[in-house]
Amino acid sequence: MPRIYLDHNATTPPSTPVVDRMSAVLREEFGNPSSVHHFGQRAKALLDEARTQVANLLGADPSEIVFTGSGTEGDNIAIRGLAEALEPTGRRHIVTSAIEHEAVLNTVKALGRRGWRTTLLPVDASGIVSPDALRDALADDTALVSIMHANNEIGTIQPIAELAAIARERRAVFHTDAVQTAGKVAIDVRALGVDLLTISAHKFYGPKGVGAMWIRRGVRLQSALTGGKQERGRRSGTENVAGIVGMGVAAREALAKMREEQARLRTLRDTLESQILGRVSGTARNGSAEPRVANTTNISFDRIEAESLLIALDLEGIAVSTGSACSSGTLEPSHVLKAMGLPAHRTQNSIRFSLGAANTEEDIERVVAVLPGIVEKLRSLTRAPVRA
Q: In this structure, are residues 284 and 273 in contact, taking their beta carbons and an 8 Å threshold?
């Protein structure tokens, strides 16, 4: 029986057009984009084309796109680069949320160890950052606000345009980690009102090891790397031409298919979610139903350890997740679910299902068919009653 992959928030399989185009570039276009001769200029033209394709996905100008090696690198360049640039001004306060990806949280913590004042905004059970909470947290020395566009574990979409407007009132720069929304949600950086935005190719059927940043023209940013002048001095190092080309192809495909594909995934996701909640006792959805990315549901299963359920499903050929792939292998409860104030048992018994392009109605039917039996078997190993 074919395996079912329901972990697309961790990574997506590169599409056939992406693989084909990257293969051709690897074979035929080996030039260094910084070289002035024929081979280098051919490579530079490929970068320019990909830069335009990524810019189109974000409603941006190509000149404002900087290619990176990952979403994590982009988050670091945004936060550390801005901190370095603004440190001499005396503005040494950073605001972020308690449910950010570790790429943001750990970078902010690192700056805290350097003497920066940091504030983590709380969320309630909805998983949504309150605009009022941000307004109360801002101060005259606030340099940067970094709030993710959508959460990687529960899928909730934050009110970024409203949050960015509040930050702008206090002259704070606003960064959003849009790794989980690029290719899934229509993004217009001008409408969002942000100053910096980070994305990663492998989350929308592009290659791993390639990301991009949108940096609003005029934003002061200190380069995180010292070296050459690549990417207009924002990110030194010879560009990964084949990977960037793959990202451009993935961006073009995502933009063309987005509306239709997200409607399809929302239908599948809602069917999966309603069937699990209706057929398996002691289950609950984590986070707000809307606004949420169309492919994601996070469900807690009472009296079951998430890791045990994940393994049992994998033995049935169904791949799911307990949360962020960057935190896998730890025994710590989800920091996202903890920040939402959920009971301790729910922070450790929750499974994320994140759907993607290859998933079908038959996949959902199979998951719903086998899941109740797996849950019943795992629960039979404990004596505690199911919580209401």
A: no
Instruction: Name the CA radius of gyration of the chain, rounded.
Output: 21
CB neighbourhood size of 208 (10 A): 16
Domain count, the chain: 2
What are φ and ψ of residue 224, in 5° steps?
Answer: -80, -20
Catalytic residues: 326
pLDDT the model gives residue 224:
76
Q: Which two tokens stand for residue 215?
A: 């940096």
Tell me the pTM: 0.94
Task: Categorise residue 148: left if φ over 0, alpha if ψ from -120 to 50, beta otherwise.
Answer: beta
Based on the fold, state whether residues 49 and 106 are members of the same structural domain: yes
CATH number assigned to the domain comprising residue 330: 3.90.1150.10
Chain-centre distance of CA 334, in angstroms? 16
pLDDT at 330 over 60: no
Which segment of 10-19, 55-64, 229-238 scores lowest on mean pLDDT?
A: 229-238
- Provide the phi-psi class of 183: left if phi over 0, else alpha when psi is between -120 and 50, else beta: left
Q: Specify the DSSP element, H or E, that contains 67.
A: strand 65-68
Residue 278's domain spans which residues? Answer: 4-11+258-379
Q: Is residue 388 included in any domain, yes or no? A: no
Helices (H), 87-230: 102-113, 131-137, 160-169, 189-192
Domain boundary, last residue among 253, 283, 304: 253
Residue with tokens 């990315």: 293
Location of structure tokens 């988050």: 75
